[in-house]
Specification:
about 375 residues; 2 domains; about 50% helix; 8-stranded mixed beta sheet
Length: about 375
């Protein structure tokens, strides 16, 4: 009698504590110094442009206001006007400087923070982190609308094109691939969707099945034919819309047994789930907000330990060959990313408060002083 396979358990410590920003910056500065030089140059250029445009606009409005209200005497000399202009520029710069991190490079910063967390998580769980973006783009261009090496419908979507974007995490034990797929939908206007997937191997080929979660709140990434819809017994249709390719719908019932459906409801109802060939896919709408969420990884482990095992056992009932797949979202996903995006440091608030004080207080003091002199 063969021993039961080990349960999948992920070490979550790396995702449960957000490290100080300085630690992340030191890591990336050492790993890729040119990236941070580019970030610094772009931030300085953005700050200079914003200060110039906003400062000149405020100065113009100020001078026009003085002219309209016949108050030119408040700033009688070019020197006093220069001081006001300088204060306007200084105030704008102080207000904008903390925002530079948020505008041109905010998405990049979140990605670098997420990738930093994922690298620690991968190290703790003996996974490899692969940056596949360039190779995948080239592969998609060569192969058309499909991504080489991936079998799910998400990687060869009808009416669109998919590219596997970094990062891709690969685990040998347990066998698992997790990554980010960017789906380009071509309709009246081009739209982009970000999805996270987990690929779990099965012992044999299965019929193609797609289970669309009704609980996740994510819309279908693409349309499926209405004649591919399969109605199942019990409460299953309250949690999933089930689709199977024409010709394998009856075979799908051999896979979706009552006990498998019960496990799907209990453990995978936040995922879109796809079975295709000898792979089971879990799909979740999102990007690093999902990948760095411990609850999402725990949900994947739960699916592997329950649904994955049971589907593997059910495969003995099925003698044909066909694809199947799915996608999903775990509850609580995105908490780490929200913490990353919402962190407002003390220096940022102090700098912006000082900027507002200089922006409005400086000219006000000059006006009051000038009014007293000419009063």
């Amino acid at each position: 009698m063969s021993a039961a396979p080990e349960l999948t358990v992920f070490e979550m410590t790396a995702l449960e504590r957000l490290p100080p920003r300085r630690e992340i910056e030191q890591f990336w500065t050492a790993d890729n110094p040119t990236l941070w030089l580019k970030r610094l140059r772009t931030s300085i250029a953005f700050l200079a442009l914003a200060t110039l445009v906003v400062g000149l606009a405020l100065n113009t409005l100020l001078l026009l206001g003085l002219r309209v209200f016949h108050a030119d005497a408040l700033l009688p000399t070019s020197g006093s006007r220069f001081i006001v202009l300088l204060m306007l520029f200084a105030g704008v710069a102080l207000v904008v400087a903390p925002i530079v991190d948020l505008l041109p490079y905010r998405r990049l910063d979140d990605q670098l923070t997420g990738l930093f967390l994922l690298r620690r998580f991968a190290r703790d769980n003996r996974m490899r982190v692969k940056l596949e973006w360039a190779a995948s783009v080239a592969g998609v261009r060569a192969a058309g609308n499909s991504v080489p090496g991936f079998r799910g419908t998400m990687f060869a979507p009808p009416g669109g094109r998919a590219v596997v974007v970094a990062p891709l995490l690969v685990s040998e034990r347990p066998q698992l691939r997790v990554g980010h797929v960017q789906y380009y939908r071509f309709s009246e206007r081009a739209r982009t969707q970000d999805w996270v997937f987990a690929e779990i191997p099965l012992p044999r080929s299965m019929p193609n099945i797609w289970l669309h979660s009704k609980r996740s709140g994510a819309g279908m990434p693409f349309s499926l034919a209405s004649d591919e819809r399969v109605l199942l017994e019990g409460d299953f249709d309250r949690y999933f819309d089930t689709y199977a390719r024409e010709g394998v719908q009856q075979e799908a019932l051999y896979v979706l047994t009552p006990d498998v459906m019960a496990l799907l409801i209990d453990n995978a109802s936040w995922f879109d789930v796809e079975i295709v060939d000898d792979r089971l896919y879990l799909y979740t709408r999102g990007h690093f907000d999902v990948l760095v969420d411990p609850d999402w990884w725990q949900a994947v482990a739960d699916v592997m330990n329950t649904v994955g095992r049971k589907v593997s056992q059910s495969s003995s009932r099925y003698t044909g060959a066909g694809p199947a797949g799915g996608a999903g979202r775990a509850g609580g996903a995105g908490e780490q990313a929200r913490r990353i995006q919402s962190r407002a440091t003390v220096w940022r608030r102090i700098t912006q408060a000082l900027g507002v004080l200089v922006l409005f207080g400086g000219p006000a003091v000059l006006f009051v002083a000038a009014a007293q002199v000419h009063g």
